[in-house]
Every structure is written in C-alpha cells, then in structure tokens.
C-alpha cells in the first residue's frame, strides 16, 4: 500500500474548480491531481475502509433521476467516509411526479443548506444547468449519453495502478459507444494522459466521427485484440435505442463478447474491465468476468476513492 503524501489540509494549487461536470474540460494536470488524491485517500483509510474527517459539517445530496447501484452508493459512502452528512433523493416517489422541474427540485434540496449535489439525469447537460442555477458544488453522476466523469476517472485509476502509467498503452472501448457516457469520459481522460484509444463495435454503434478526436475506430475485435493492453467492455444500452442495432444478442456476442477463446489470443497481461452493470453472456462470458484478467471489482473499490477525492477537491475549492 502506498503512503499518503498529503495531510488533506490544503487543496493542491492545480485544483481550482468548484464543480466536476465532465472530463473534456479538464487538463492532464487536473486529472492527475484527482488520481493522486484518490491514491492518498486509499492509503490514509486502509483502502477506504476507515473514516477521515475532512468534510465534517458539510452535506452532500445525491439527486438521482435515473437508476444506479455503483455510482449512487459509492458517492454516498464516500461522503460519509469523509465525515459529511448525506441526503438521498430519487425521482420516483418525489414531487417530480407532480410536475416540479429539475431546477426547482434541486433548489429545494439546496435550501436545506447542502454543500454539494451529485446529479444523474437522462438529459445531457443537466449538471451544467444546475451549476448555472445553484450556489453549491455540482458533480455529475452521469448525464444521458454525454459524460460520466467519475466512471472515467475510476477506470483510469484502475489502469494506472496496474500499469504504473497510461502513457503508450492501447485501450479498447468495446460495444455501445454511441450511447455510452462512460466511453466519452474515458476517451477524454485516456487521450490526455497519453494512451492510444480504440473504439470498437458494430457500425450502428460506433461512429467514424471519433477519428477526428485522434481515436482509432475499429469494427473487428479479433483484428485489434492482439494489440490491446486493456479492454473496457461496455453494456449495450437497449433502453436508449429506438431500433435494434444488430439482428440478435447472440450475433453480437459471437462478434464482440470477451470469452475464453479470445483471452487465449490476447496479451498475457491484458486487463479486462467493465463499468457495469455487466450482462453476462452478452459483452462478457462469466468465466472471463470472474477470471484472473478481470479487474471489475477493483474498479468499484477505486470508485469509492475517486469519489472521496472529487468531493474533497470540489468542496475544498468551493470554500475559498
Ligand atoms: N457504472 C455505473 O454508472 O453503474 P451504476 O449505473 O450502477 O451507477
């Protein structure tokens, strides 16, 4: 375990942001600042098992207008690990069903003297809308297919821990790129930290337009597989699609699922990642999901550390 390099009293000078809305607008130095802070929190809290009271007296509200297991629970736990209080809001069972707007709902929660909101919403740009209308810190927990910044960060932290650096690594994002906020956040973050990024999947889900951002576009997983250091397997988001992007799930799995046969043709030390939720038998077979190359549960643990770091940095910057 690494040794903490900070006593968490001073926010690093490179970090001046009150909000975290995306990774597109962050510099490599800001990304590294969050990753380093997450490592420090892991080291100082025995892998996030113990509390460290750096946000005592602060309150964080989780405003989730879409379902979540990982993001919601880890933001909530991260806030409590830092000594903050939490409010849990779900759109189901709330006054949203009576016609209240997202801004009025958020302002109502903010009026309870909260310091930060974590917002997940199906509409891209909702975190930015709240940042413009609230006084408190706003952190995106995922906005439609736009971005999921803390997911991108926890994915990148997991790779950095295993490989030491992102520089020169080839990372393939496989699956539903078109509807994936995780893909977008990974692309921005990975590119800025020096990785070569491939997006791979059926042509109906992978646009050539990503080439304009320096990303390689591929349609044949078996062709790119031997070059990959990391595969991040993205779920097919049927709930965001109006038409079927391929004839059958079985056909998709045949062409793009990571299975034992493909593992045997990959690099010996390939990392298999998935943001979750995973669909066993669609993008990944159970033996690979639970096998020695899989770091899927490490990603979840790193999610807690990343969210502790993001809460500490944004709330700390908001204080000055
Ligand atoms: N990866 C992710 O965002 O998972 P949840 O939808 O469970 O939060």
Number of domains: 2
Main sheet strand line-up: 7-6-5-8-9
The number of E-state strands comes to: 9
Largest sheet: 5 strands, parallel
Count of separate DSSP helical elements:
11
Q: What is the H/E order?
A: HEHEHEHEHEHEEHEHHEHH
Distance between the termini: 32 Å
The name of the CATH topology of the largest domain is: Rossmann fold
Task: Work out the radius of gyration.
Answer: 19 Å
CATH architectural group of the largest domain: 3-Layer(aba) Sandwich
Q: Low-confidence spans: pLDDT under 50, at least 5 residues?
A: none
Mean pLDDT: 94
Name the structural class.
Answer: alpha/beta
What helical percentage do the residues reach?
25-40%
- CATH class categorisation of the largest domain: Alpha Beta
Superfamily at the CATH H level of the largest domain? Aspartate/ornithine carbamoyltransferase
Shape: globular
Report on the structure:
The chain is an alpha/beta fold and 320 residues long. The protein has 2 domains: 28-147 and 301-315, Aspartate/ornithine carbamoyltransferase (Rossmann fold, 3-Layer(aba) Sandwich), CATH 3.40.50.1370; 149-296, Rossmann fold (3-Layer(aba) Sandwich), CATH 3.40.50.1370. The protein is built from 11 helices and 9 strands. The strands form 2 sheets. Strands 7-6-5-8-9 form a 5-stranded parallel beta sheet, with helices on one face. The chain has a 4-stranded parallel beta sheet with strand order 2-1-3-4, sandwiched between helices. Strand 1, helix 2 (70-81) and strand 2 form a beta-alpha-beta unit. Helix 2 packs across helix 11 (296-319), helix 3 (102-110) crosses helix 4 (126-133) and helix 5 (149-163) crosses helix 11. The model has no long low-confidence stretch (mean pLDDT 94). The site of phosphoric acid mono(formamide)ester (CP) has 11 residues, from helix 2.
């Amino acid at each position: 375990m690494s040794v903490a390099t900070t006593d968490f009293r001073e926010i690093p000078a490179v970090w001046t942001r009150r909000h975290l809305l995306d990774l597109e607008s962050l510099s490599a130095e800001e990304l590294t600042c969050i990753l380093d802070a997450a490592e420090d929190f892991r080291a100082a809290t025995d892998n996030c098992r113990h509390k460290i009271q750096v946000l005592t007296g602060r309150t964080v509200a989780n405003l989730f207008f879409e379902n979540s297991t990982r993001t919601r629970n880890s933001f909530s736990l991260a806030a409590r690990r830092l000594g903050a209080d939490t409010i849990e809001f779900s759109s189901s069972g709330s006054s949203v069903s009576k016609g209240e707007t997202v801004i009025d709902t958020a302002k109502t929660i903010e009026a309870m003297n909260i310091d930060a909101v974590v917002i997940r919403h199906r509409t891209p740009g909702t975190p930015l809308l709240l940042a413009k209308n609230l006084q408190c810190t706003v952190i995106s927990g995922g906005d439609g297919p736009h971005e999921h910044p803390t997911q991108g960060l926890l994915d990148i932290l997991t790779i950095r821990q295993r490989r030491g650096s992102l520089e020169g690594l080839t990372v393939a994002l496989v699956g539903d790129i078109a509807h994936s906020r995780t893909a977008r956040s990974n692309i921005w973050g990975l590119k800025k930290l020096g990785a070569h990024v491939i997006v791979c999947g059926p042509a109906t889900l992978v646009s050539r337009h990503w080439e304009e951002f320096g990303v390689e576009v591929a349609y044949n997983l078996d062709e790119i597989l031997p070059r990959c250091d990391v595969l991040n397997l993205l779920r097919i988001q049927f709930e965001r699609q109006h038409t079927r992007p391929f004839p059958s799930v079985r056909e998709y799995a045949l062409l793009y699922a990571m299975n034992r046969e493909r593992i045997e043709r990959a690099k010996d030390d390939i990392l298999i990642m998935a943001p979750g939720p995973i669909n066993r038998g669609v993008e990944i077979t159970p033996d690979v999901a639970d096998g020695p190359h899989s770091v899927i549960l490490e990603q979840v643990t790193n999610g807690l550390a990343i969210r502790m770091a993001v809460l500490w940095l944004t709330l700390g910057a908001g204080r000055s």
